[in-house]
Recover the amino acids of this structure.
């Protein structure tokens, strides 16, 4: 959360919120006064147990998942904390680039990656604002 510079009143999407680090990120975001917390994860029971305002289950098919990412992106996400990267990011980044309101860039922080694979994602850089130490992964 430090790298993302989350401020009270902002909306945060935590990609991979059902793991221990993601669960802690939800709690920290709530403590810091996030206006809205959107959590993604594969386990429906774990998602339901989180103190999140909205949950997106990553086991949905790509069309459904892309639609959900588009809807939350259009409503303005200020910060993304991504513990997964991978396929969910492949679907999330284009939605953010296409639907993020103009003049409101997203601070996207990649904390980890699932499977250590690299993905090519087409996105419009104006939709994103680099977080401090952008391009580095926490280990």
């Amino acid at each position: 959360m430090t790298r993302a510079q989350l401020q009270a009143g902002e909306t945060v999407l935590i990609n991979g919120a059902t793991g221990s680090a993601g669960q802690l990120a939800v709690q920290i975001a709530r403590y810091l006064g996030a206006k809205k917390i959107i959590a993604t994860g594969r386990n429906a029971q774990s998602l339901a147990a989180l103190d999140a305002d909205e949950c997106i289950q990553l086991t949905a098919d790509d069309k459904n998942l892309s639609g959900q990412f588009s809807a939350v992106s259009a409503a303005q996400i200020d910060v993304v904390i991504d513990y997964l990267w991978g396929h969910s990011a492949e679907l999330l980044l284009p939605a953010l680039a296409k639907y993020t309101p103009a003049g409101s860039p997203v601070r996207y922080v990649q904390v980890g990656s699932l499977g250590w694979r690299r993905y090519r994602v087409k996105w419009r850089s104006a939709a994103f604002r680099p977080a401090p130490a952008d391009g580095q992964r926490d280990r």
